[in-house]
Amino acid sequence: MDVGCGRDLNFFKAILKRFPRVGALVGIDKDPSVSQTAHVKNKRIWCYVANIVKRETLTVFEGMMDKVISTNTVNKIPKKKLMFENVYRLLRPGGEAAFFFILDSCYHTFLMALLKIPKFKEIFKGRHNPNMYPKHRREQYYKKMLEEVGFHYVISLEEEKIYPHPSEEDWKDELYEGYKNMFEVSPESVDEIKEEAFQIYVKTIGRYEGEPYYRVLLLSLFGQKEV
Ligand SMILES: C[S@@+](CC[C@H](N)C(=O)[O-])C[C@H]1O[C@@H](n2cnc3c(N)ncnc32)[C@H](O)[C@@H]1O
Questions:
Q1: Does the C-beta of 138 come closer than 6 Å to ligand 1?
Q2: Helix 168-179 crosses helix 106-115 at what angle (to 10 degrees)?
Q3: Each residue of 9-40: pLDDT tens digit?
Q4: Distance 37 CA to ligand 1 centre (A)
Q5: Which of 64, 80, 108, 118 is the most exposed place for a label (fewest CB within 10 A)?
Q6: Whose CA is closest to 35, among 64, 6, 57?
Q7: What does the chain look like in DSSP terms, one character per residue?
Q8: 6 close to ligand 1 (CB < 6 Angstrom)
Q9: 13 in Cβ contact with 20 (< 8 Å)
């Protein structure tokens, strides 16, 4: 099962390639449009609407899963322990779970810096949780959480990834594309906002070997349910 599978079903494509004899793949996502639009071309793939923090939407799958994975979704869920508890319930005895998610991102730091500037704060129309990536919630914090839930043989791996961007102009455009829906930007101020946002980004995040860059801290977590 893939929790928060999203439309592209990338995980299932990878699993089918690597394990062509896999029995069945179940994708769940809380967004109903995912199961409506997900491109399911294989009869062993099933997509359902379910919310991993609402147990009543999951009962049909409880105790059924050999493996559960979730990528890029844990960081979207405020009630993480509840999510892990529900994943634990989905597993059969001896079943395994793996999670991959963001622990911190320089985009968060950048947005916090932008919102300290009155000009940007005034035109902000998005939603943002300033406490999204608390500094004390790192590898050991989540490892302990999984153990408290009941998982055995918990393994965790924290890694920082750095992606330098060779073209400043492309980076300005990408930053703008990533954030434009969060701000009310009039057409005549696009260039000015783009330039200012880029300058704030570089001032806040810095450069890597002379180039602007994206930095993200990622966690892989693995655990097994008792046999
Ligand atoms: C960033 S996407 C990741 C998609 C895919 N796993 C990937 O790595 O490409 C996060 C997905 O998690 C889903 N999601 C968020 N909260 C969820 C919840 N509580 N229960 C189930 N799905 C959830 C979203 O609807 C979205 O499709």
A1: no
A2: 70
A3: 889 989 999 999 999 999 999 999 888 876 66
A4: 14
A5: 118
A6: 6
A7: -EET-TTT-HHHHHHHHH-TT---EEEEES-HHHHHH----STTEEEEE--TT-GGGTGGGTT-EEEEEEES-GGG-S-HHHHHHHHHHHEEEEEEEEEEEEEEEHHHHHHHHHHTSHHHHHHB-S---TTSS-TT-SHHHHHHHHHHHT-EEEEEEEEEEEEE-S-HHHHHHHHHHHHGGGB---GGGHHHHHHHHHHHHHHHH-EETTEEEEEEEEEEEEEE---
A8: yes
A9: no
What average pLDDT does the segment 39-64 reach?
A: 91
Nearest CA to ligand 1 atom 12: 4
Q: Which pLDDT score is estimated for 29? A: 96
Distance (angstroms) between ligand 1 centre and the Cα of 207 equals 31
Give me ligand 1 centre to Cα 137, in Å. 20
Ligand 1 pocket, residue 87 CB under 6 Å: no
On whether the CB atoms of residues 28 and 52 are closer than 8 A, the answer is yes
Ligand 1 atom, smallest distance to 53 CA: 19
The pLDDT, as a whole number, for residue 38 is: 66
Return the best residue to mutate from 29, 82, 85 for the ligand 1 pocket (most ligand atoms within 8 A of CB).
29
> What is the model's pTM?
0.91
52 lines ligand 1 (CB under 6 A): yes
Name the CA radius of gyration of the chain, rounded.
20
- Ligand 1 atom closest to residue 10's alpha carbon, by position in its atom list: 9
Q: What would the mean pLDDT of 44-62 be, rounded to a whole number?
A: 96
